[in-house]
User: Which sequence fits this backbone?
């Protein structure tokens, strides 16, 4: 199972110490099934982070640069997403969530009290939200829609897909029609 978390640029820009950055990086570690859902497009998201970043010193700038470099390695591109420049990032993300749901949206605040938005992340490093502790596996019912929902994030993430059917054998004539 793969989980897609959207990150509000203002939240990332507001992180001011190593502990906060480390906490956020731990959420997206390589051995965790959590990926950064790129919204809006990566260049725009990076631009929004940098525009909202208040330089307080060289070390915070270094943390931010390293975090952006790191998060790009854990990114999933969202297909056909819209971003209205007249609205704020959180409003846009909530509309995008209605179109194609994120597993969570991590933001500075949650003014609309949405259940899929976790706010005040900087306070979480001392008191983690239980919704951030995700299972690394899950049992999926053998129902087509449940199986499709379970693999959909993996399919969006992959660049090449190889399907293996243990019952397929090209040595027999009855399977050769499939190859044409």
Assistant:
């Amino acid at each position: 199972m793969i989980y897609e978390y959207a990150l509000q640029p203002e939240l990332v820009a507001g992180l001011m110490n190593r502990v906060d950055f480390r906490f956020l990086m731990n959420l997206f570690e390589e051995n965790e099934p959590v990926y950064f859902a790129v919204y809006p497009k990566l260049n725009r998201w990076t631009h929004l982070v940098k525009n909202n970043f208040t330089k307080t010193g060289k070390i915070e700038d270094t943390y931010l640069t390293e975090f952006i470099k790191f998060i790009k390695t854990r990114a999933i591109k969202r297909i056909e997403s819209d971003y209205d420049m007249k609205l704020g990032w959180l409003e846009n993300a909530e509309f995008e969530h209605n179109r194609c749901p994120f597993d969570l949206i991590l933001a500075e605040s949650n003014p609309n009290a949405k259940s899929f938005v976790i706010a005040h992340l900087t306070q979480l490093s001392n008191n983690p939200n239980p919704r951030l502790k995700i299972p690394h596996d899950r049992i999926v019912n053998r129902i087509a829609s449940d199986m499709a929902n379970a693999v959909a994030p993996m399919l969006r993430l992959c660049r090449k897909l190889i399907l293996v059917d243990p019952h397929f054998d090209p040595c027999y004539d009855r399977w050769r029609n499939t190859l044409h």
In short: The mean pLDDT is 84.
